Amino acid sequence: MLTLASNDFIKRYAQESAPIMRADLLEVVEMMALIAPEAELVSNVGIPYFQQNANWLYGVAARSDHLCVYFSDLSVLYSFADRLPHVQFGDDCLIIYQLEDINLNVLAELFGQIKVHFLLNHREAFELLQ
Fold this sequence. Notes:
Strand order of the largest sheet: 1-2-3-4-6-5
Helix content: 25-40%
Shape: globular
Order of helices and strands: HHEEEEEEHH
């Protein structure tokens, strides 16, 4: 399987990101892809994000000193606040300063819960497509 790090858009986006954030960015993108392998990596909003059946699932933007992780369903996000003590919760995103400071298993669980909620919320659309 071709890794996302070899994707032209991801390569370019990572190269344009602050050097201190590159490894974390690539790890988050790879984690998102592992959690939702059927989702399509899209770049038309300028950041790596994943969509399924033309609906936004999640994405990540690299800033100079942090990552902003965006989700399609923020209602799940706040139930993870106690389990992700080294992140900040923005108005519409999760802010990660250093990936090494957080429990990656909890982050992966959060991505998984976002995917489950996404599938439940879009179940009718998926059933119509089949």
